[in-house]
């Protein structure tokens, strides 16, 4: 269900961008840190991935993305000695919606997103669930169609009545390879 | 047009937050209960570990908001003091039945953990990853007790008598998912 929604959203973006005749498409690899929020069973990890920003109309960017985060193991000390739980890995793909303010040299953009997330860790069945992203970013334009984005976001994976939340801080370098009037 | 665009994101964010509901105010919290050493011998009645979660402050902080059991494990070391290989499982019985026979444990209890095989005279250390994998379907009956706060007792027994072993430095850890 989630995959269908995301696929339809991506398709709608591509079609609307094409019809609008104001298409800008880029690619942005990114990396950073991911902090589990209120999770006692894993610790800070690293995150990487890529985004494909598609400018649909002025100010509005739709951005399919993929990300993969690996978390640190959780170690506790008890009368049994030191014991460790695998921090696991969370991979996600989905689409963000960015609302930009500013110019080519500097922009500021709040964004929201919807994605499919897979949480994998040793000794536990894989968990694939829908998730939401809420974030803020700043972008700096560079020569030769390049740009730098710095973002902070809250990623929330919903599982029934609870969620796994992560605070992500990332930096990415974008290259806009297609820009049509 | 620009005004409309500026309204899109807050509206969508509000819709997502409303849809997300209480899940935003939730977390995964570690509950740890240390029960020390238990010596088990099939020749006599078997003692279990009586679990009263109300004695744990983390559990008490979240007991009314528990939504899930994210993870559970038994830590410690099992030393097989018998002369033959031991296949050990852990059973759950409601309340505090006290010392009972191994046969009563297996016939009236719910198997929640295992099996763990320990060679004669050997010691197997239980770490978090390894032990969590041995709970499997046992998480479901445990979750219902943890959510309701019902007290229960865990008994470790061998699959075939005679058996004798020590469960040393035993610890029960559970990661509960709680949300407002």
Average the pLDDT over all residues of chain A and give the rounded result.
Answer: 88
**SSE pattern of chain A, N- to C-terminal:** HEEEEEEEEEEEE
Taking Cα atoms only, what radius of gyration of chain B do you get, to the nearest Å?
21 Å
Which strand order does the major sheet of chain B show? 1-8-3-6
Unreliable spans of chain B are none
Strand content of chain B: 35-45%
- Largest protein-protein interface: A-B, 39 and 44 residues
Label the structural class of chain A: mainly beta
* Low-pLDDT segments of chain A: 17-21
Helix and strand run of chain B: HEEHEEHEEHHEE
In total, the number of strands of chain A is 12
Helix fraction of chain B by DSSP (H/I, runs of at least 4): 25-40%
- Main sheet: strands, sense, barrel of chain A: 10 strands, antiparallel
Distance between the termini of chain A: 35 Å
The main sheet of chain B comes to: 4 strands, antiparallel
Structural commentary:
The complex is a heterodimer of chains A (181) and B (180). With 181 residues, chain A is mainly beta. Chain A has one helix at 2-20, and strands at residues 24-37, 43-51, 54-57, 60-72, 74-78, 81-85, 89-99, 101-102, 106-121, 124-141, 146-159, 162-179. In chain A, a hairpin with a 5-residue loop joins strand 1 (24-37) and strand 2 (43-51). Chain A starts with a helix and ends with a strand. Chain B is an alpha+beta fold and 180 residues long. In chain B, 27% of the residues lie in helices and 44% in strands. Chain B is built from 5 helices and 8 strands. In chain B, the strands form 2 sheets. In chain B, strands 1-8-3-6 form a 4-stranded antiparallel sheet. In chain B, strands 2-7-4-5 form a 4-stranded antiparallel sheet, with helices on both faces. Chain A binds chain B through residues 37-41, 57-60, 74, 76, 78-81, 83-86, 97, 99, 110-112, 114, 122-124, 132, 134, 156, 158-165, and chain B through 1-2, 5-6, 8-9, 12-13, 16, 20, 22-24, 26-30, 32, 34, 36, 67-68, 70-71, 73, 75-77, 126-130, 132-133, 169-171, 173, 175, 177-179.
């Amino acid at each position: 269900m989630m995959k269908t929604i995301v696929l339809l959203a991506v398709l709608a973006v591509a079609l609307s961008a094409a019809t609008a005749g104001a298409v800008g498409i880029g690619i942005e690899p990114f990396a950073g840190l991911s902090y589990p929020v209120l999770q006692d069973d894993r610790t800070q990890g690293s995150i990487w991935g890529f985004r494909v920003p598609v400018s649909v109309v002025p100010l509005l960017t739709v951005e399919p993305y993929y990300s993969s985060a690996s978390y640190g193991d959780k170690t506790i000390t008890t009368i049994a000695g030191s014991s460790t739980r695998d921090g696991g890995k969370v991979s996600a793909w989905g689409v963000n919606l960015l609302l930009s303010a500013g110019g080519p040299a500097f922009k500021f953009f709040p964004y929201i997103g919807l994605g499919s997330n897979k949480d994998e860790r040793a000794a536990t069945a894989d968990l694939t669930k829908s998730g939401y992203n809420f974030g803020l970013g700043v972008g700096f334009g560079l020569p030769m169609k390049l740009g730098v984005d710095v973002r902070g976001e809250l990623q929330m994976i919903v599982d029934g009545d609870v969620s796994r939340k992560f605070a992500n801080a990332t930096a990415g370098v974008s290259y806009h390879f297609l820009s049509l009037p | 047009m620009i005004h409309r665009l500026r309204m899109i994101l807050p509206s969508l964010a509000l819709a997502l937050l409303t849809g997300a509901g209480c899940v935003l105010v939730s977390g995964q919290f570690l509950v740890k209960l240390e029960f020390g050493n238990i010596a088990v011998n099939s020749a006599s009645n078997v003692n279990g570990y009586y679990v009263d979660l109300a004695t744990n402050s983390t559990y008490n902080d979240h007991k009314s908001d528990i939504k899930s059991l994210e993870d559970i494990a038994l830590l410690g070391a099992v030393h097989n003091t018998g002369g033959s290989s031991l296949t050990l499982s852990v059973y759950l019985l409601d309340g505090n039945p006290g010392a009972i026979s191994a046969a009563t444990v297996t016939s009236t209890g719910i198997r929640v953990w295992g099996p763990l095989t320990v060679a004669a005279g050997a010691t197997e250390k239980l770490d978090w990853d390894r032990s969590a994998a041995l709970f499997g379907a046992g998480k479901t009956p445990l979750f219902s007790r943890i959510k309701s706060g019902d007290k229960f007792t865990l008994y470790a027994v061998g699959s075939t008598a005679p058996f004798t072993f020590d469960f040393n430095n035993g610890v029960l850890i559970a990661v509960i998912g709680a949300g407002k």
